[in-house]
C-alpha cells in the first residue's frame, strides 16, 4: 500500500548519540528511483497525562524550557524508558512531577509531534480519581503545578499563551471528552 509514496533506506549512520536524543542520517531511494538523504532525530517516545481533578479542574504545570528560553504551560509528561510500558510510565511521571496518583486511567491517542524530522511519538492518557501526594522531581527538574478549567486552557490556546503541541492537542481532546462528544473506548499501546 502507498508504494508510490514510500522511500527505501539504502544506508545510514548515527551521527550524534546523546543522553536524550540521537541523530540519524540515512540515504534513501525516492519513489522515482533517485536518491536523497534524510536526517532525523531518534527519540524513545513519551507519555502525556491529562489529569482531571474531582471538581472538574485540570492539573497543569509551568516549566522553563531552555531551547525557547521561556516558561511554558504544559500537561505532565515524560520520556518512556527503554522497555517501559507507556501506562506504567504515565503513572510514574504523574506521581514524580505532581505528587498525584490516579485510580482511573484511559488511553486517549498517539500523536507524532514532529514527523518531518523525528520519530518521536507521544502516548496521551486521561487520569481521573486523583489523590494528592508528595512529588519526587528528577534531579535538575524544576516546575510548579496549578489548576485551570478546560475553558481556560482553550482560551490560552487561542490567545497564544499555550503553544506546546501536546498541551494544545490535549486541551482539544479534553473539550471533546468533558462534553461527552468523544468517548475513550479504544485500547492503549500496551493493550493492543
From TrEMBL:
Its cofactor is Mg(2+). Keywords: Hydrolase. It catalyses: GDP-alpha-D-mannose + H2O = alpha-D-mannose 1-phosphate + GMP + 2 H(+). PROSITE patterns: NUDIX, NUDIX_BOX. Residues 41-170 form the Nudix hydrolase domain. The keyword Hydrolase applies. The keyword Membrane does not apply. It comes from the Bacteria. InterPro entries: Nudix_hydrolase, NUDIX_hydrolase-like_dom_sf, NUDIX_hydrolase_CS, NUDIX_hydrolase_dom. Belongs to the Nudix hydrolase family. NudK subfamily. This is GDP-mannose pyrophosphatase.
